[in-house]
Amino acid sequence: MNVPDGDAFASEHIYSTDFLLYAEAPVDSWRYRYVKRAVDMVFSLMLIAAFAVPGLLIAALIAATSSGPVFYRERRIGQNGRLFRIWKFRSMYRDAAHRAHVTHLHTGAKVIEWRMHKHLRDPRITPVGGFLRSWSLDELPQLLNVLTGDMSLIGPRPIVDTEKAIYGKLISVYMTAVPGLSGLWQVSGRSRISYDERAKLDAQYVQSWTMASDIMIFLRTFPAVLSRIGAH
Asked: Is residue 198 part of a domain?
């Protein structure tokens, strides 16, 4: 599988949605269920060990600069629609909902807009949280989700329940796979990619999955994080 960059995909997303919905998905294979899971366990343990000290420093910085818990837990949709709670370093103020109310912007639609278009100024995010998000450091604790099997190192972006409607009929394709810490969307431009294109990228990943494609996305993740393209 040739993994497209964001600009190439934006101009080419011409594959058939019907094919995506009804073709037999490679995520049903034993390689996906067992080989991919074994790789996730080994590499998540290695990465947890490698980032243990930086993680402790980040936790101390969060605790020292704003009140509230170090970690943030949010319910996300996993494989086959199973709900789980994601681990993240807290990047928002403890009174985030109140701060949004003060700006007269706290509606369900506005929160979804902030989630979809992360370049928009979100008054709920702390200065430290903004830095963590720009380098994707707030997502390091998700390695725990990978270790427990709720997530994979590579896969579709884990979504919240309110985002299901935006995926439309592609949601059934999305839910056949294990959501990932990184994925095709993340290395193809992230917030520069529209939500419609993001849903199609997730579906393309599911229908075209191979271990080779996971390796390619994994190798592209580090340059994408360092370049901070589309990261907010």
From this structure: yes
